Structure formats: structure tokens, C-alpha cells
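hiii, so i know i said id send this last week but things got crazy w the move. better late than never?? heres the sequnce for the chain we talked about at the cafe, plus the structure i predicted for it. fair warning i was half asleep when i ran it
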Amino acid sequence: MHMQLDFDRYPCKSYEDVAFRIYGGWARYCVNVIQSLQLLFIVAGVVLSSGQSISQISKNSTCYIVCILIYALAGIIVRQIRTLQRFGWLANLALWLKLLIMFIVMGLSAPSVPSYQAALASYSIPEGPVVANAGTPPGGTFVDSLNGLNQAVYSYGSSMMFCEFMSQMRRPTSLWKSLIAAQAVIYFCYVTFGMVVYSIQGQFAFNPAMQGLSPYNRQTAVNIMFLFSGLITACLYGNVGVKVMYVNVLQELFNAPPLTTKKGKWLWVGLIPIYWALAFVICVAIPHFSYISGLVGAVYILQFTNTFPPIPMLGSDIKKSAILPLETFDTVTRSFTRTDDGITKWARDFMQKGYVNAFNVFFVLGAATTAILGIYSSVVSLIAGFEEKTIATSFRCAAPV
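okay and structure toks below
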């Protein structure tokens, strides 16, 4: 579908371009808003988890809000870089750091006990023997299972940047090779990592996992590595998020100057603190990483991964099937000559690829149902979490680690 919509004169560079060319301007604005919010919440999640690391490094002697603020200020300073080209080698370094962190955590979790303090502060789980279950733990509810699904979506999902990557590659096969290689590494490492850590720590397994380690010196070393890789990740997502907001909202709706001009550069400098300030407010309002990651997975990532892709595919197939030999387009008057219209036309066009279109409709309904259930479980967990007395609450200094 992307290759059918991509042209040399009018390249298809982003997700909103696909929505715009099939459904029009309203779909483009909807995608831009959802994409911008997803990137903002992802940045907030990285800032929050990094704030927890800073709090652990300081042995909870520093106010948790201050820990988050420190990391947000660091992001504001680093985020003044406008181009992603200067982040290339740092992004590669961040990837290898994350893989190194995973292997270190697996190695350190075996000879040591879990961090009972973090499990008690975040999940209200008291110290006790480690219990690991192959299936759903006894006493687990349907909401608990959905929350686990949300975390899986957060870890493995998202096709949000598909078009951006596709537009940067000369050969379409290069993207598929890259995607297969990346997904293979992610699945192998994540599944192995999850099984090893959970089998060792059981119900005390923490999210993020390095904060569930108990030796302070080793925990601190891994936390410092996580801070560095997290800052790069947050800046990369923040770069894309601010650019989407600037180009598609400020430039189109409010006639903001291009980023290449002097005024545009100064406006960029002013937008960065505002963007990270919003992420900071989200962090202190929802001071628990698992809640933010679950909410992002259900509300945003699941949509871009499962719900949204079949929708433009359905519209594209129906519109291509709608073209008949007698129907023409006048390039001078920019008008169409149609042989029929209305419900009869769309029913005929739908049945041209009836099985494929029916499958896309079924897929969308299934993904939307899963999304609704995921959002429901996230909201229920947020309400239950804030009602507990041991967890960190909004705009308070107590840390959930």
C-alpha cells in the first residue's frame, strides 16, 4: 500500500500522508494528534523510569519530584539539537547499552535477592518467598491479565514510524530485511530476558527490571547505564514529537516560520522546555512507570500496530476497486465523471475484494475490542493504585522504589 501511494514528485514520508491520501485532511489531523500524544507519553515514561533510577541512586534521600525534574532539565539541554543525524552513533550506543543492561540484570538477579523495598512501594507486595507461575498467578483477575497484555504491547508493538523508515530506504526489500532482523533480536532478547528474570524473582520482578536488583552498588551501576541510554531514547522520541507538532500544527494552522529560518530556530528553542514540561507534569501526576507504559500500550501503540493499519488498507482497496473504465478525471476542471454513486457503489466496490475487505473489517473490530479492554484495565489499575497508601501519589516526594 505504501509503494502504491509513494511517488517521486509526492513522496509518502509519514503515517499522516497515508491517512491524508486515502481519507482526506481530517484523518491526517487525527493521526498527527494521536502520534504527538503517543510520543509525549513515551518521553514521559522514559523520564519517569529514569527519575526512579535517580531516586534509587540517592537512596531515596532526594524528593522524587526533584529527581524527575533533574532528568527533564537534562533532556531540555540535550534536546536543543534539531537534526537526528547527530544522534546516529549515540542511538547505536544506546541500543547496545540496553542489551548490555539486560544481560547484566540476568546475571546479577541470580545470586541476589529481589528488591523487596521496590516491590512493596510500587505493588504493595510484602517480603516473602519467591513464587513463579507458568500461567496466571493464583488470585489473578481478568484485569491483571489485560495489564500484562498492555505491557507486552508496549514492549513489542508500534508501527508508528514505518513510513519514515520506508521513505529513507532506496529499496523496499531493505526495510523488510531490517524489520525482520530487528524483530528477531527484540523477540529473542525480550522473551529470554523476561523468562529468566521472572523465574528468579517471581512476584517481585520489577518494571524496569534493573530497579528490582538488591545489591546497591551493582544496582547503581546499572541505573547509571540506564540513565544514559534512556536520555538518548527520550531525546530521539522528543525530536520526532516536537517536529510533528511544529510542522503539522504550528506551520499549517498558525503559519509558523520554517525551522530553517532564524525565527523558526528560536521558536524551536522555546518549544523544547514546553514539551518537556508537559512530560514532567505527566510524570508527577502518574508517578508509576507500569501505569504509564500500560496506558500508552493500550491507547496508542496498539492502535498504530493493529487497529489503524487495516483501515487505510480497506479504504485503499475500495477506492481502487471503485475505478471503472468509463470513469475519468478532468485535470483542467479537477472534476470526476462517475457512472454510479452512493451505497450501491460502495457495496459493489467492497465486494471486488470481498474476502480481503471482510478480513480487514474483522481485524479492525478485534483490535478495537482489545484496545477498549486494555484501556479499561489501565483505568481500573490507575484508580486502584492511587487508592493504595503504600504507592507514590501525585505531586508527592515519596518514590515508588
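btw The radius of gyration is 24 Å. thought thatd interest u
miss u guys!!
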